Amino acid sequence: MPKPPVPVEIVENMKGIKHKIVVLSGKGGVGKTTVATNLAVSFASRGKKAGIVDVDIYGPNVPKLLGLNGQRPTVEGEFIKPITGPQDVKVMSMGFLLRKDDDAVAWRGPMVASAITQFLANVRWGELDVLVVDLPPGTGDEILSILQSIPDIDGVVIVSTPQEVAVLDARRAIQLVQKMGVPVLGIVENMSEFVCPKCGESYKIFGEGAAKKASEEYGIEHLGTLPFDPRVITLSDEGSPFVIIEPESKASQAFSALVDKLANKIMID
Length: 269
Known about the structure:
Rossmann fold; nine-stranded mixed beta sheet
């Protein structure tokens, strides 16, 4: 699939960003935004200058997960200054522009495309080691536009849960990205197991093996599994990244291993 030239204003605005990681899922509800936000925070906690841009225009949840609801960006000339989140992560999201957190965005395609372009071309990202891009779920027109608009993408991280229906949609996302000639860094299996906080028993409540099988069939790396931990849900609702608040938890340890793999794959120094 031929890729059109990236607009000059986007290239110019993003030239100070060393690495760009896109997080995508074939369907909603698999924890994609939780992975994206904690990925950005993890890089920042390791001393990297990190940012996250939430281009899920219809469902902008990044502000909620980072405890930034209600904040508003400032405008400096033609540029928007991003919000500073946990660990000094630079954040931009449609959620910052809504009158109320639960307002619906009833826009047609051209308006959505314009907003995405502004997030890439008119937000003053400055110098960053890594920018995480949180995409909307699915494989629609927005996904194509975003992947075609970001210069020099290091690669895409696919997020899925273990169940067959989620992995089926993840397969579609993998095929789309590969057809566009964008590297797939690997697949993350979220909610791989539930560990009872009282007895310690582990339960594979969503099945197992489907994501691993898909990674082998498509020749991509299985980046790891993340357990289903009720504390992650609670902390996310509170706007507190679990990798910072519960660094010794099994979920955080698994996530740290995931970040190690990604840092090595994109050769972030």
